[in-house]
Amino acid sequence: MNTRKKGAEYEQKALEYLEKQGVHILESNYRNRQGEIDVIGKDAEYLVFFEVKYRKDNLKGNPEEAVNYGKQRKICRVADYYRMSHKIGDFEPVRYDVIAICGNELKWYKNAFEHIYR
Description:
Helices cover 30% and strands 36% of the residues.
Protein backbone atom coordinates (compact mmCIF):
# COMPACT_ATOMS: atom_id res chain seq x y z
CA MET A 1 0.00 0.00 0.00
CA ASN A 2 1.46 3.38 -0.94
CA THR A 3 2.00 6.14 1.60
CA ARG A 4 -0.80 8.40 0.34
CA LYS A 5 -3.37 5.59 0.43
CA LYS A 6 -2.26 4.52 3.91
CA GLY A 7 -2.45 8.14 5.10
CA ALA A 8 -6.00 8.43 3.75
CA GLU A 9 -6.97 5.22 5.55
CA TYR A 10 -5.73 6.49 8.92
CA GLU A 11 -7.25 9.94 8.37
CA GLN A 12 -10.58 8.17 7.86
CA LYS A 13 -10.09 6.32 11.17
CA ALA A 14 -9.35 9.65 12.84
CA LEU A 15 -12.52 11.17 11.32
CA GLU A 16 -14.64 8.30 12.61
CA TYR A 17 -13.09 8.62 16.07
CA LEU A 18 -13.64 12.39 16.19
CA GLU A 19 -17.27 12.07 15.12
CA LYS A 20 -17.85 9.51 17.90
CA GLN A 21 -16.36 12.05 20.32
CA GLY A 22 -18.92 14.65 19.23
CA VAL A 23 -16.75 16.73 16.89
CA HIS A 24 -18.71 18.21 13.98
CA ILE A 25 -16.49 17.74 10.91
CA LEU A 26 -16.48 20.77 8.62
CA GLU A 27 -13.81 19.70 6.12
CA SER A 28 -11.19 17.04 5.56
CA ASN A 29 -8.06 17.40 3.47
CA TYR A 30 -8.54 21.14 3.12
CA ARG A 31 -5.95 22.53 0.70
CA ASN A 32 -4.92 25.95 -0.48
CA ARG A 33 -1.74 27.53 -1.86
CA GLN A 34 -0.26 27.62 1.64
CA GLY A 35 -0.59 23.88 2.24
CA GLU A 36 -3.04 21.39 3.73
CA ILE A 37 -4.93 20.71 6.95
CA ASP A 38 -6.07 17.13 7.52
CA VAL A 39 -9.33 17.86 9.36
CA ILE A 40 -11.24 20.99 10.35
CA GLY A 41 -14.05 20.64 12.85
CA LYS A 42 -16.06 22.17 15.67
CA ASP A 43 -15.53 20.83 19.19
CA ALA A 44 -17.99 22.65 21.45
CA GLU A 45 -17.25 26.35 20.89
CA TYR A 46 -13.80 25.77 19.31
CA LEU A 47 -12.93 25.78 15.64
CA VAL A 48 -10.29 23.05 15.60
CA PHE A 49 -7.58 22.39 13.04
CA PHE A 50 -6.43 18.77 13.32
CA GLU A 51 -3.18 17.25 12.11
CA VAL A 52 -3.30 13.45 11.81
CA LYS A 53 0.00 11.56 12.07
CA TYR A 54 0.46 7.81 11.76
CA ARG A 55 3.41 5.52 12.46
CA LYS A 56 3.25 1.72 12.39
CA ASP A 57 5.55 1.72 15.45
CA ASN A 58 7.65 4.20 17.39
CA LEU A 59 11.08 3.04 16.17
CA LYS A 60 11.49 6.34 14.31
CA GLY A 61 9.81 8.39 17.04
CA ASN A 62 6.25 8.93 18.12
CA PRO A 63 3.86 10.30 15.49
CA GLU A 64 3.11 13.47 17.49
CA GLU A 65 6.82 14.36 17.41
CA ALA A 66 6.57 14.77 13.62
CA VAL A 67 4.42 17.87 14.11
CA ASN A 68 7.47 20.08 14.55
CA TYR A 69 7.74 23.88 14.53
CA GLY A 70 7.89 24.09 10.73
CA LYS A 71 4.78 21.93 10.33
CA GLN A 72 2.99 23.95 13.02
CA ARG A 73 3.84 27.20 11.23
CA LYS A 74 2.48 25.85 7.94
CA ILE A 75 -0.74 24.66 9.61
CA CYS A 76 -1.21 28.12 11.14
CA ARG A 77 -0.76 29.82 7.74
CA VAL A 78 -3.34 27.51 6.15
CA ALA A 79 -5.68 28.08 9.11
CA ASP A 80 -5.32 31.86 8.75
CA TYR A 81 -6.30 31.63 5.09
CA TYR A 82 -9.22 29.34 5.91
CA ARG A 83 -10.50 31.76 8.54
CA MET A 84 -10.11 34.73 6.20
CA SER A 85 -11.82 33.03 3.23
CA HIS A 86 -14.70 31.79 5.43
CA LYS A 87 -15.06 35.20 7.15
CA ILE A 88 -14.33 33.78 10.60
CA GLY A 89 -13.45 36.64 12.93
CA ASP A 90 -10.66 36.98 15.44
CA PHE A 91 -13.02 36.35 18.34
CA GLU A 92 -13.86 32.78 17.28
CA PRO A 93 -11.95 30.46 19.66
CA VAL A 94 -9.45 28.38 17.71
CA ARG A 95 -7.48 25.31 18.75
CA TYR A 96 -4.77 23.21 17.11
CA ASP A 97 -4.98 19.50 17.92
CA VAL A 98 -2.97 16.45 16.90
CA ILE A 99 -4.35 12.96 16.36
CA ALA A 100 -1.42 10.56 16.76
CA ILE A 101 -1.87 6.97 15.66
CA CYS A 102 0.87 4.47 16.51
CA GLY A 103 0.01 0.95 15.45
CA ASN A 104 -3.58 0.55 16.60
CA GLU A 105 -3.36 3.11 19.41
CA LEU A 106 -4.94 6.53 18.81
CA LYS A 107 -4.21 9.55 21.03
CA TRP A 108 -5.92 12.93 20.79
CA TYR A 109 -3.74 15.83 21.90
CA LYS A 110 -6.02 18.80 22.47
CA ASN A 111 -4.40 22.23 22.19
CA ALA A 112 -1.19 20.55 21.01
CA PHE A 113 0.38 23.90 20.06
CA GLU A 114 -0.34 27.61 20.08
CA HIS A 115 -0.94 29.72 17.00
CA ILE A 116 2.31 30.86 15.39
CA TYR A 117 2.08 34.38 14.03
CA ARG A 118 4.07 35.41 10.99
